[in-house]
Design goal:
Blueprint lengths: L7 E3 L5 H20 L20 E2 L5 H7 L8 E2 L1 E2 L1 E5 L2 H17 L8 E2 L2 E7 L4 E5 L11 E2 L19 E2 L8 E9 L7 E2 L2 E4 L9 E3 L9 E5 L3 E4 L2 E3 L1 E11 L4
Parallel strand pairs: 2-3, 9-10
Antiparallel strand pairs: 1-15, 4-8, 5-7, 6-18, 7-18, 8-16, 11-15, 11-18, 12-17, 13-14, 13-16
Length: about 260
């Protein structure tokens, strides 16, 4: 899809105090889950997260670059994500963030039909090497919309770790809908970490630099809003720790 505005950024909108409160909520949730034996590892489609049998980091390389640098024997050892996550649904978070989403959706000219907001994903990227390789958050056609998962009836099996297979949901509000708008909030003082930048791939036909590192979003409390079909990554953190908050906004398939 062709859009005039590839993303919309609100610089330094959340105060350091608010960012610290979100970090406290997110890290406390991770620690609580660990005590309960619940994994905090961020998973991916196709089991491509870091694990005992995935030991080669993709970093910010594209798939083609990766294939050019890895031999065929260890390409399956590559992981595309290394981070920890927890999930938050505090009402005040939605009250705080959704006005920015609606403003960006209108002022950017996208005006996407959105009517549902998933839980917030709190993410921790630790050094050395915490990252998320190239991906988009959802495709745009009708076939990509979420399908209902019914235990014991849906023929597609659960993942080995118990998570639902890609494209399925238990949430009735998501069935038949797509992620249309993605939101990333940087919670960390930029002086306390290195690397960990949000980076876009605008595609072969973009009239300009195809790859863009969104350094303006590094300011603490910055909110960046972009279409969920956009390819993006988080470059490896080389020093310190980066905390972020992510939200996906969904609606009926594009017409």
């Amino acid at each position: 899809m062709i859009t005039t505005n590839k993303y919309w950024c609100f610089n330094s909108q959340l105060s350091p105090e608010v960012c610290d409160e979100i970090i406290k909520l997110g890290t406390s949730s991770i620690e609580k889950n660990k005590k309960l034996g619940i994994s905090s590892v961020a998973y991916t489609f196709g089991n491509k997260e870091k694990s005992d049998d995935k030991k080669v980091s993709q970093g910010e390389l594209s798939i083609q670059q990766l294939k050019n640098t890895q031999d065929k024997n260890n390409i399956e050892d590559v992981y595309i994500r290394d981070s920890e996550v927890s999930w938050l649904n505090d009402k005040w978070l939605y009250d705080t963030i959704l006005p920015y989403v609606r403003t960006a959706n209108k002022n950017s000219g996208w005006k996407y039909d959105i009517d549902y907001f998933e839980n917030f994903q709190f993410t921790v990227y630790n050094s050395p090497g915490g990252f998320y390789g190239w991906h988009n958050d959802m495709s745009t056609d009708h076939h990509a919309s979420y399908k209902r998962y019914i235990y014991g009836i849906t023929e597609v099996p659960l993942r080995k770790d118990g998570h639902l297979p890609f494209g399925y949901t238990k949430d009735n509000n998501l069935v038949g809908k797509l992620r249309k708008i993605s939101v990333t909030i940087n919670l960390t003082n930029p002086l306390s970490y290195e690397g960990g930048n949000l980076k876009f791939d605008f595609g072969n036909h973009f009239e300009g630099d195809r790859f863009y590192e969104c350094v303006e979003s590094r300011q603490q409390g910055s909110i960046i809003v972009f279409p969920s079909y956009s390819y993006h990554c988080v470059t490896p953190v080389t020093k310190g720790t980066r905390y972020s908050l992510v939200l996906w906004c969904s609606g009926k398939p594009f017409k």
